[in-house]
UniProtKB/TrEMBL annotation:
PROSITE patterns: PROKAR_LIPOPROTEIN
Stretches that traverse the bilayer: 6-25
Keywords: Membrane, Transmembrane, Transmembrane helix
UniProt protein name: Lipoprotein
Keyword match Transmembrane: yes
Tree of life domain: Bacteria
């Protein structure tokens, strides 16, 4: 009986791991995105605005503020892409300085990301990734669980991919999933896709 219970727990956790994870969708920006071939990934290399010019949200209809850049200033492209906290940067940011997000695709599986202040690198990181579905999938998945997942708790995970619009702007697409359960009974949870567009500079 004990072994049977353990097997049920293992199978349940594996099922949620496979089927409950965040998944990508192009639903909101399929008319904007260019499906890049693997040999075209180098087109991602370049400098982009640090703050987005448009937002694509998978839940609900597009709102008026989704196309107004001033309403999107709280989003920082570097920290959205790298999945890092930005509070320290925001406190040090100078209004007279120009900040840019810089991407350099070293090859089809390695991406260098830099935060520039007046053309000077102030933060950088390198990600592994791969070409898939016309975009570059970044290996910086995030997983955070609390309690005993799928018994008395849940897990939150997210992941990112990048692509280009037809006019050469950068798209950063984030997929998020938050699943919880109580004694194997799936409780409240949510999943969504959030995508921002950054102007090429």
């Amino acid at each position: 009986m004990k072994n049977q219970t353990i097997n049920i727990i293992i199978l349940t956790v594996l099922s949620f791991t496979i089927f409950g994870c965040a998944s990508f969708t192009k639903k909101r920006f399929r008319n904007e995105v260019v499906n890049l071939e693997k040999v075209e990934l180098s087109k991602l290399t370049g400098n982009y605005s640090l703050n987005p010019i448009r937002r694509y949200y998978s839940l609900g209809k597009e709102g008026a503020n989704d196309k107004i850049s001033d309403s999107l200033k709280k989003n920082n492209g570097y920290y959205f892409l790298t999945n890092e906290r930005k509070s320290e940067f925001d406190s040090l940011k100078k209004s007279e300085s120009e900040y840019l997000l810089s991407l350099n695709l070293k090859n089809a599986s390695k991406l260098k990301v830099e935060l520039l202040e007046n053309s000077k690198v102030i933060a950088d990181t390198i990600f592994e990734g791969k070409h898939k579905n016309g975009m570059f999938y970044i290996e910086n998945k995030y997983l955070d669980c609390n309690g005993i997942p799928f018994l008395f708790g849940g897990c939150r995970n997210n992941k990112r991919r990048i692509g280009l619009t037809k006019n050469g702007n950068l798209l950063i697409n984030e997929a998020v999933s938050n699943e919880g359960a109580l004694l194997f009974i799936i409780g409240s949870g949510y999943s969504y896709n959030l995508t921002y567009e950054y102007k090429r500079r």
